[in-house]
Structure formats: structure tokens, C-alpha cells
Automatic annotation (TrEMBL):
GO terms for molecular function: 4 iron, 4 sulfur cluster binding; metal ion binding; transferase activity. InterPro entries: Aldolase_TIM, Elp3/MiaA/NifB-like_rSAM, FeFe-hyd_HydE_rSAM, HydE/PylB-like, rSAM, rSAM_sf. S-adenosyl-L-methionine binds at residues 160, 180. It comes from Haliovirga abyssi. (3R)-3-methyl-D-ornithine binds at residue 135. The keyword S-adenosyl-L-methionine applies. The keyword Iron applies. The lineage of its organism: Bacteria, Fusobacteriati, Fusobacteriota, Fusobacteriia, Fusobacteriales. This is [FeFe] hydrogenase H-cluster radical SAM maturase HydE.
Amino acid sequence: MSSVSNEKELGRNEILSFMKEENEEKLKELYKKAYKIKLDNVGDKVYYRGIIEFSNICQKNCNYCGIRKSNSDVHRFTMSEEEILESAKWSYENSYGSLVLQSGERQDEEYIEFVTGLIEKIKKLSNGELGITLSLGEQTFETYEKWYNAGAHRYLLRIETSNKELYNKLHPADHKFETRINCLKDLKKIGYQVGTGVMIGLPEQTEEDLVDDILFFKDMDIDMIGMGPYIVSEKTPIGEIAQNSKEIKKKRFELGLKMIALTRIYLKDINIAATTALQALNPVGREAGLKAGANIIMPVITHKNYRKDYQLYDNKPCIDDNAVECKACLENRIKGVGDKIGYGEWGDSLHYKNKK
Ligand code: SAM
Ligand code: SF4
């Protein structure tokens, strides 16, 4: 493996050789380099996006997801507007600069209006100060525009994998890879800061696919990345065939860190989240993500009563905690890494700002 240089951009072959690297010392060097590039380009502040997972009702059937429509074991819920606004108020009062509204995918009028009302009311209760990211799946141009005009300014829609053949195996036939790409283009056209990402360590996914994912992020001129290891949800079609040994989980975790580090080195000024899925595989997974170049954390602020019903995968961490416990726990974790918390700040993607 060659050492990482600051002067020149990594090429595909070089990224691939790092992706396949197993030597621990060399990987430590890679993470150290990525951390330095983070400090040089986006600084040492970690920005919070408190995530409210407000409904697990979904019209889709992604073959890996625990809350897919066909999973009849799931107790379905939608938080009331009052409960969601209460969580948003908590975020504001606790100086979380931004929040994420996430749910299963729905495209009906009632849902679209519900979300529009939420965005407007969250803006109002925070005097416009809370930044709003949406993670609500595929929608029409008009819906994305409506939510943007209501006050949302970032949107997270993972491509899941940039390998179309693999994408088709992960989703039923009515999910179209092209639609996903068009949604990302629509979001950009409207003016959102656009986030995407992939699941890492999926059955049949190769290291080459992961390298192509990083190149895809660059080609699409993406502003923010939310990616994490694939984690088995047993009662799903992919969960039934996926390996789940200790070794494979370790590999998924390591690939997750390599993806963060290589994306940071390759794309430099974007925002990258250290996701909860890293912590599901390793108790200090999110800290390791920050050390490998991530600069965003998405603390779950969903009310404790609902967390157990939003299980995208088995053994999701923190389901017994509440927002106050999560806050205290995270502060200690981030302090341990040596980073600071950007309380009260939006922490927008510098990549997005630099384009303006
Ligand atoms: N429904 C919206 C969507 O699909 O974009 C937002 C919610 S969805 C649950 C958010 C993300 O969860 C998906 O983009 C997917 O990558 C991730 N996810 C679902 N099942 C997962 C699993 N078994 N392991 C890891 N991530 C998973
Ligand atoms: Fe629904 Fe999103 Fe899960 Fe797919 S990943 S089944 S769209 S919640």
C-alpha cells in the first residue's frame, strides 16, 4: 500500500488498495491522515442533527429493512404533531443546531401536508434557528419543492449502492435505480444541500463496488454523506440469506471506517456522519468514525416509547435511552476523541457553501 499523500488526489486503484488493506498499522496511518484532512478542511467541531424517527409506516419493501411494508410483526406508529414539536423544542432548548425528520416512505396528500405543517411549525418555534434535514425517501419534484419552501434545507436520500445490478437485488422490481438518481438531481436543482450514502458490507457487495460508491459521491457533487455498515434484520429477505458471523460483522465495521476515511481524503470539504449503525457493531463505533474523518453526529431524540418500533435492523443501540441520557453520553464520547461540539450552530456543508 502506498502512503497517503496530501499533494495529489487519490486514483481509483489507490483507493481500492486501501479498501483491501488489512495491515493494522497501515490502517491506523490511513485514519490518522483522514482525521488530519478533516481538521484542515472542516475543523474539529462535531455538529449535531437530532433525529426524530416520527413514523415507521412505509409503503415500500426494501429487502434489507426491518420496517418494510410486508413485515407484519412490526407495530406501526406515527408520532402526533404535538409529540414531534415537543422533541423539536427540546432540541432547540438544548442547542442542537439542526434536526432530522425521518420516517418510512409515504407519498399521499395527508402525509405531505402533515410534513409541511411540521416544517413550518418547527421553524416558528425556533425563530428560524433550527436547521431542518429531511430523510423521507423518494418524492415528486413538487413535494420536495413544497418542503424546501416551507423551510427545510437539507435532504438525505441514500443511493444504498451505486451498483445498479446489486441495487436491483436489494429492492423489489417496482424500485427503480434511475428514479433514485433523478430524485437526487431534483433535490440539487431545488437548492437543497444534498446528502446520500450507502450500506457497507452487503451480501455480494465487493470492495470495487465501494470504491465506485465514493466516485459516485464525487460525480454527483454530493454535499453530505450518511453511510454505515449493513446490519442484519433477520425477518427480511436479505437478512435471511446474509452471513452474520463475528468475523463478517468485524469486516463490515472495518469497511465502514475505511469508507469514511477514504471519502474524507477524496472529497475533503463535505459533511460526513458517524452513524448509529457503527455503534451497533462496536460500542465505540461512532468515536472511531469521528477519528476516521466524520464530523456529524445524529443523536436519536425520538421519544423512548417509540424507539423499539423503529428497528431497521436487529439490536439497534440506545433504544432504552431518552434524549437527555443520549446527550450526556455523547458529550463524553466526543470529548474523548478530542473534538468540540458545535452547539447552536447549523454546521452546513462547506462543500455546499464553497460552490456558492
Ligand atoms: N424511508 C426513508 C428512506 O429509505 O430513505 C428514510 C428512512 S430509511 C429507514 C433510512 C436508511 O436506513 C436507509 O436509507 C437504509 O440505508 C437504512 N437501513 C435500512 N435497513 C438497514 C439495515 N438492515 N442495515 C443498515 N441500514 C439500514
Ligand atoms: Fe421504507 Fe426506507 Fe425501510 Fe425502504 S429503507 S423499507 S423506504 S423505511
